[in-house]
User: Fold this.
Amino acid sequence: MRCPECQNPDTKVTATRVQDEDRVVRRRRRCSRCGYRFSTLENCCIADLVVLKRDGSRETFEPQKILSALKKTFKKDARSDEGIRQLHQQIVQIIQGQEKRSLTSRMIGDIVLEQLRQIDPMAYIRFASVYKNFQTPNDFASAVQAISEES
Ligand SMILES: [Zn+2]
Assistant:
């Protein structure tokens, strides 16, 4: 951690204190060159969410992938970028609100699909028409899952 006073990169931690039910760590630091004292806060409430994929591999959840899946879904739609962004934000909030460290790609697909169905049934149906061989709701879920995995 660089000293905010003299830009010296070498600062020493003089005290560490955990607060807010172990979610925030405050460190007192002292610059080894100019002696300036300051504190840093580490906030761990935005943990990486792990996605468990069908093939057994894992990857860090990347909200950007859902955004590109949504953009594909609404490619021929008049829906504005702003509308897609809001929908994306809502979906990401629901996913992060699960308060789990890992989710299967299937669960994420189901969440996306459920939001599509609630917000825009037409998009849900259009989504189905893009992927022709759908017979059951599970087929829809698989397709959303496939989209979020391929991008
Ligand atoms: Zn300094």
